[in-house]
Amino acid sequence: MTENSAAYEVVVVGGGAAGLSAALVLGRCRRRTLVVDAGEPRNAPSAHMHGYLSRDGMSPAEFLAVGREEIARYGVELVRDRVVDAAGEEGGDFTVVLAGGRTVRARQLVIATGLKDELPPLPGLAERFGRDVVHCPYCHGWEFRDLPTGVLATSPLSVHQALMVTQWSKDVRLFLHELSESGLTDEDLRRLAAAGVTVVPGEVAQVVVTDDRLTGIRLTDGTLHDREVLYTAPRAVPGNGLLARLGAQLRETPFGSYPVIDERGLTTVPGLWAAGNASGFAEQVVNAASRGYRAGAAINAELLMAGLDDSAP
Fold first, then answer.
1. How many domains does the chain fold into?
2. Is the dihedral of CA 37, 255, 47, 27 positive or negative?
C-alpha cells in the first residue's frame, strides 16, 4: 500500500445507526475498523426520533454524535468522506477509493449507505418534510395525535397508510392527488369507510403554510382543506451503487432494489455485507442498529475462523 493508503480488517461505508452499530461491535472485538461517513443521514430533517427504547425523543444528530464518541473509545477510526469506487481483489479483500484521494483495503466490507427519500414535486412539501409533513405514523403519530390529518397519495399503497394513521387521529382525509377513484378497490373503499377516512379526489396544488406551520392543503380547483399534518410516502432510492458494482445479487421490491442477504446480512459476495436501509426499506433506527450489531458479530466470527484456518498446521 502507498503512504496514502491503509489496510483494515473491516471498512464500514456509512455512519448512521447501522454502520456505527457494526463498528461498535467490531471495535469491542479489537478489530481494526474504519468508518467512512458522507454525513447524509436519512432522518436528518427530523428533530426527534422515536420508538428506540431508552433513546425515545433524542434528536438524530445527538444520537449520531454519541455513537461516534462510543466507537472512538474502542479505537475505531471515522473519516468524513465519500466512497467513490470499490473493487474486489484476488484473495477476497476489497479496495475502497475515497473522494478525498485515499485508497484503503479491507478484508471485510460493510455497506450501510441507507436510502434517500424523493418527495412528490409539490410546492411547499420538501420544506416541511420532517416537521409537519411526515411519512411514518410509528415515528410521528404520537406527536400529531388527534390533529386534522391528511394523507397525500403517491401510490395505491397510500390507502394502507391512511388506514394506519387512523390509530392516531379520527379526522383523516386521503388526498388522491394523481390517483383516480377508479383505482380504489371495493375492499379499499369498505375499509376507508369503516375507518372514517374521507376520500378527497382531485389533484393537490400546494401545501399551505401560515406562521411557519402547516395549515392546509389546496387543490388545483382552489378548494382549501384545513389540515395540520400531512403524511406522504416518498419514493425510496436505495444506496445500492457499491453493492451492484461489487457484484452483489439484488432483488426487486415495490420500494426499490435491495441485496439478497442471509440472516446475518451477508450478501451473495463473500466478505460483503449490507445493513440498515441498504439492506431493506423498513429498517427504522432501532432495527438498523440491530442489523449492524448482527453483522458486526458475524464478521468478527468470520475473521476469527479464517485466521485459525490460515494458521492451522
1. 2
2. negative
| 76-134: pLDDT as tens digits | 999 999 999 999 998 889 999 999 999 999 999 999 999 999 999 999 999 999 999 99
Cβ(34)–Cβ(79) under 8 Å?
yes
Please give the radius of gyration of the chain, using alpha carbons only, rounded to the nearest integer.
22
Q: What is the CATH number of the domain that holds 191?
A: 3.50.50.60
Say how far apart CA 60 and CA 46 lie, in whole Å. Answer: 7
Report pTM: 0.93
User: 110: domain range?
Assistant: 5-117+235-311
Q: How far is the C-alpha of 148 from the C-alpha of 142, rounded, in Å?
A: 13
**What pLDDT, in 10s, does the model give residues 161-216?**
999 999 999 999 999 998 999 999 999 999 999 999 999 999 999 999 999 999 99
Q: What sign for the dihedral angle of Cα 244, 272, 266, 286?
A: negative
* Whether residue 3 has pLDDT greater than 50: no
Neighbours of 274 (CB within 10 A): 30
Q: Where does a domain end: 196, 215, 232?
A: 232
Tell me: do 104 and 50 sit in the same domain: yes
What is d(CA 102, CA 5) in angstroms, rounded to the nearest whole number? 6
